[in-house]
Amino acid sequence: MADNDVPPKLSDPSSIPGMTPIDQNTSSEAGKRPFADYMREEPANKVQQSPTPMQALSPQSNISGPPTMDSVQQQMKITSTQLGDINQKLNTPNLKLKPSQKFLVRSKLEDAHTNIREAAQKVGVDTGPDVDTKALQNPIAKFIALIGDGQEQLESAQAMITKYSQDGQTMNPGDLLLAQVKLNRAQQQLDFSSIVLSKAIEGIKYLFNTQI
What we know:
212 residues; mainly alpha; 2 strands
């Protein structure tokens, strides 16, 4: 089309109207709410989700200030509670772990178990020989054996700290700090194991609900 064929109204760009700016008082939803109301709304709160295994292993900031016998003893109680929670999950009826889940749980529970024993040694506990799980064929039975030994070590460690307090004795701050670090690592590894077991239990519940 030749230029002289363009209608006169279109040949002049200034005649094309621009976009009208949005007025914050402009109503929306058929006049029910002004547009400005949406601009002032706070973002919706995100639904909290359980941490992923990788988040469970991320560095924790729950160690604050120099350790004391009371703070280390309290940390041992928390660790013992974590072990009890995992023990309960391992006793879930019909629990079957995939090979990858077995590997992850075994790896983290063994690491946590080592850290717990080393923490107990730092407060003066004679931990004795390590628990022998070679004779146990069932992997879940091995996990439960590790948990049982870990709880015994923590109970002995708490009793040792109580005895120090009753006798008016103090502990080496360096040993307390090392015990605290070992316990903190154990707690992270136990969190990881707990999350993996929770995922496995959710799969069992979903399977049974589907069959019903």
